[in-house]
Amino acid sequence: MDSQSDLRVTVGDRELTATWTDGAPETRTALENVLPVSGDAIRWGDELYISASLDAPLEGGREVVPEGAIAYWPAGEKLCLFWGPTPASVDDEPRAAAPVTVVARLEETAPLADLTGGAELRLERADEP
Questions:
Q1: E strands within 1-129?
Q2: 22: closest CA among 104, 94, 107, 116?
Q3: What predicted TM-score, i.e. pTM, was given to this entire model?
Q4: What is the average pLDDT across 63-71?
Q5: Phi and psi for 31 in degrees, rounded to 5?
Q6: Fewer C-beta neighbours within 10 Å, C or N terminus of the chain?
Q7: d(CA 29, CA 43)
Q8: What is the predicted pLDDT for the residue at 1?
Protein backbone atom coordinates (compact mmCIF):
# COMPACT_ATOMS: atom_id res chain seq x y z
CA MET A 1 0.00 0.00 0.00
CA ASP A 2 1.20 3.50 -0.78
CA SER A 3 2.76 4.94 2.36
CA GLN A 4 1.31 8.36 1.52
CA SER A 5 -2.27 7.12 1.83
CA ASP A 6 -4.21 8.28 4.87
CA LEU A 7 -7.29 6.07 4.61
CA ARG A 8 -8.20 2.56 3.52
CA VAL A 9 -11.62 2.53 1.87
CA THR A 10 -13.33 -0.80 1.33
CA VAL A 11 -16.32 -0.97 -1.02
CA GLY A 12 -17.67 -4.52 -1.04
CA ASP A 13 -14.66 -6.62 -2.09
CA ARG A 14 -12.71 -3.65 -3.50
CA GLU A 15 -9.97 -2.06 -1.41
CA LEU A 16 -9.04 1.52 -2.26
CA THR A 17 -6.90 4.21 -0.68
CA ALA A 18 -7.59 7.87 -0.04
CA THR A 19 -5.79 10.96 1.22
CA TRP A 20 -7.10 13.79 3.38
CA THR A 21 -7.86 17.05 1.60
CA ASP A 22 -7.20 20.52 3.01
CA GLY A 23 -9.93 22.94 4.00
CA ALA A 24 -12.08 20.93 6.42
CA PRO A 25 -10.07 20.58 9.65
CA GLU A 26 -13.07 20.20 11.96
CA THR A 27 -14.67 17.53 9.79
CA ARG A 28 -11.36 15.68 9.40
CA THR A 29 -10.81 15.65 13.18
CA ALA A 30 -14.39 14.52 13.82
CA LEU A 31 -14.05 11.69 11.27
CA GLU A 32 -10.65 10.63 12.62
CA ASN A 33 -12.21 10.39 16.08
CA VAL A 34 -14.84 7.86 14.96
CA LEU A 35 -12.74 5.70 12.60
CA PRO A 36 -13.22 2.97 11.64
CA VAL A 37 -16.72 3.63 10.32
CA SER A 38 -18.75 1.28 8.15
CA GLY A 39 -22.24 0.43 7.03
CA ASP A 40 -24.39 -0.95 4.26
CA ALA A 41 -24.22 1.85 1.74
CA ILE A 42 -27.16 3.19 -0.21
CA ARG A 43 -26.44 3.93 -3.85
CA TRP A 44 -27.56 7.12 -5.58
CA GLY A 45 -26.15 7.21 -9.10
CA ASP A 46 -22.37 6.93 -8.80
CA GLU A 47 -22.47 7.81 -5.11
CA LEU A 48 -22.61 5.60 -2.05
CA TYR A 49 -23.52 6.91 1.38
CA ILE A 50 -23.73 5.58 4.92
CA SER A 51 -25.02 7.05 8.15
CA ALA A 52 -22.32 8.73 10.22
CA SER A 53 -22.90 11.22 12.99
CA LEU A 54 -19.94 13.60 13.20
CA ASP A 55 -19.69 16.64 15.43
CA ALA A 56 -18.75 18.96 12.56
CA PRO A 57 -20.34 21.92 10.79
CA LEU A 58 -20.53 22.35 7.03
CA GLU A 59 -17.04 23.49 5.96
CA GLY A 60 -16.53 24.90 2.48
CA GLY A 61 -19.87 23.45 1.45
CA ARG A 62 -20.26 22.57 -2.21
CA GLU A 63 -22.56 20.51 -4.38
CA VAL A 64 -20.21 19.78 -7.30
CA VAL A 65 -17.33 17.67 -5.97
CA PRO A 66 -14.25 16.09 -7.54
CA GLU A 67 -14.38 12.49 -8.75
CA GLY A 68 -13.34 10.26 -5.85
CA ALA A 69 -14.48 12.75 -3.20
CA ILE A 70 -15.24 11.47 0.28
CA ALA A 71 -17.58 14.03 1.78
CA TYR A 72 -19.75 14.57 4.83
CA TRP A 73 -23.29 15.86 4.67
CA PRO A 74 -23.93 17.34 8.14
CA ALA A 75 -27.66 18.01 7.63
CA GLY A 76 -28.36 14.36 6.84
CA GLU A 77 -25.54 12.86 8.93
CA LYS A 78 -24.22 10.91 5.94
CA LEU A 79 -20.71 10.07 4.80
CA CYS A 80 -20.65 10.02 0.99
CA LEU A 81 -18.33 8.59 -1.64
CA PHE A 82 -18.59 10.02 -5.17
CA TRP A 83 -17.05 8.56 -8.32
CA GLY A 84 -19.31 9.74 -11.14
CA PRO A 85 -22.61 11.37 -12.05
CA THR A 86 -25.58 11.29 -9.68
CA PRO A 87 -29.25 12.04 -10.41
CA ALA A 88 -28.46 15.68 -9.45
CA SER A 89 -25.60 16.03 -11.96
CA VAL A 90 -25.88 18.52 -14.80
CA ASP A 91 -23.16 16.95 -16.95
CA ASP A 92 -20.79 14.16 -15.95
CA GLU A 93 -19.60 15.84 -12.76
CA PRO A 94 -20.29 14.22 -9.40
CA ARG A 95 -22.94 16.37 -7.70
CA ALA A 96 -24.41 16.06 -4.23
CA ALA A 97 -28.09 16.69 -3.58
CA ALA A 98 -27.13 19.37 -1.04
CA PRO A 99 -23.88 21.06 0.02
CA VAL A 100 -21.32 18.68 1.51
CA THR A 101 -17.86 19.02 3.09
CA VAL A 102 -15.13 17.29 1.08
CA VAL A 103 -12.73 15.73 3.59
CA ALA A 104 -10.71 13.20 1.55
CA ARG A 105 -10.25 11.89 -1.98
CA LEU A 106 -9.79 8.42 -3.41
CA GLU A 107 -6.48 7.87 -5.19
CA GLU A 108 -8.32 6.03 -7.99
CA THR A 109 -11.95 5.37 -8.87
CA ALA A 110 -11.60 2.87 -11.75
CA PRO A 111 -12.30 -0.16 -9.50
CA LEU A 112 -15.78 1.30 -8.82
CA ALA A 113 -16.75 1.60 -12.50
CA ASP A 114 -18.43 -1.82 -12.63
CA LEU A 115 -20.03 -1.67 -9.17
CA THR A 116 -23.68 -2.69 -9.31
CA GLY A 117 -26.10 -1.77 -6.56
CA GLY A 118 -25.04 -0.90 -3.06
CA ALA A 119 -22.19 -2.40 -1.06
CA GLU A 120 -20.73 -2.34 2.40
CA LEU A 121 -18.61 0.79 2.76
CA ARG A 122 -15.82 0.95 5.34
CA LEU A 123 -13.32 3.72 6.10
CA GLU A 124 -10.36 3.18 8.40
CA ARG A 125 -6.88 4.56 8.92
CA ALA A 126 -4.44 3.24 6.33
CA ASP A 127 -2.01 2.24 9.10
CA GLU A 128 -4.57 0.05 10.92
CA PRO A 129 -3.62 -3.64 10.76
A1: 7-11, 14-20, 37-40, 42-43, 47-51, 62-64, 69-73, 78-82, 95-106, 120-125
A2: 104
A3: 0.93
A4: 97
A5: -70, -45
A6: C
A7: 26
A8: 38
